[in-house]
Amino acid sequence: MNLGNGKPLAGDEKKGFVKRMFTGISANYDLVNSVASLFIDHYWRIKAKRALKPRPGQLILDLCSGTMPLARAVVSRVKARVVCLDISRAMLAQGMAKNGSLSHALYPICGDAENLPFPDNTFDSAMVAFGIRNLGSLENGLTEIYRVVRPGGKTVILEFSRPTLPVFAQVYRLYLKKVLIPIGGALTNDRQAYEYLVDSIYRFYKPEQVQRLIRTVGFENVRKVSLTARCVTLYSCNKCNGFGRSER
Ligand SMILES: C[S@@+](CC[C@H](N)C(=O)[O-])C[C@H]1O[C@@H](n2cnc3c(N)ncnc32)[C@H](O)[C@@H]1O
């Protein structure tokens, strides 16, 4: 999103814009997500949950948690606790209204993923679904995750990427422009928000670059798997435990 001055937003300016934008679309965010992805978003989150391999009793961090769909998916099957952090209080409030009997295991916190209010080595593992491309600085976000996860602990990240198959790539781009932006805009009354979301997918790093950055921050066992013809990439990694191989 350029906001008219030709320069893409970054840092605190982007953070402020993103916070206002998600707050504005929070009421219908889940509906647009599921309709626009033809409900495939549920499958992507199941893949993320399986990659995380949560265990009973664990304390897990869900960053950029939004309306907490990934956190709910985790605690619906495993007796773990998930701290759900998001910069938009309104997104968390929408999520809390859906948590029902799972709410005892979910702890919403309004905060900034780039400046986490937790001591070092607090969490057994961390996860982020469709959040990292919205950060003011991806490097700051990854560094904070690394700091708060315990040595050896796993991190799983889901994020949009761009399909590379020539015809499919064109059809996908057309779909985002001609279907997602109008539908999202109409259902939330905020076309600009969906223009930003599509724009952010095309401006974001390539999966290889994300993978490199994850390694640079210090994570090991860094892997990436493409999902749905590369529309989405699932990254997984571990914080070094100082004793050679960490759990996978
Ligand atoms: C695309 S939504 C994804 C929400 C959820 N994880 C999901 O899978 O549907 C991105 C979320 O990231 C949050 N976000 C963006 N920047 C953030 C930051 N710096 N710190 C915390 N949350 C942030 C937004 O408020 C929004 O709720």
Please provide a written account of the structure:
This protein is α/β, with parallel strands linked by helices. The protein has one domain (11-238): Vaccinia Virus protein VP39 (Rossmann fold, 3-Layer(aba) Sandwich), CATH 3.40.50.150. It is built from nine helices and seven strands; from the N terminus they run H-H-H-E-H-E-H-E-E-H-E-H-H-H-E-E. A seven-stranded mixed β-sheet has the order 3-2-1-4-5-7-6, sandwiched between helices. It is globular, with a radius of gyration of 17 Å. Residues 1-5 have low confidence and may be disordered.
Name some characteristics of this structure:
seven-stranded mixed beta sheet; 7 strands; alpha/beta; single chain; 248 residues; binds S-adenosylmethionine
Produce a short descriptive summary.
With 248 residues, the chain is of the alpha/beta class. The protein has a 7-stranded mixed beta sheet with strand order 3-2-1-4-5-7-6, with helices on both faces.
- Number of distinct helices: 9
Could you spell the SSE succession in H and E letters?
HHHEHEHEEHEHHHEE
CATH architecture: 3-Layer(aba) Sandwich
Estimate percent helicity: 40-55%
Total domains, how many?
1
Main structural class: alpha/beta
Count of distinct strands:
7
The portion of residues forming beta strands comes to: 15-25%
What distance lies between the first and last C-alpha atoms, to the nearest angstrom? 37 Å
Order of strands across the biggest sheet? 3-2-1-4-5-7-6
CATH class: Alpha Beta
Main beta-sheet strand count, sense and barrel state: 7 strands, mixed
Classified in CATH, the superfamily is Vaccinia Virus protein VP39
Radius of gyration: 17 Å
Determine the CATH topology. Rossmann fold
Bound ligand species? S-adenosylmethionine
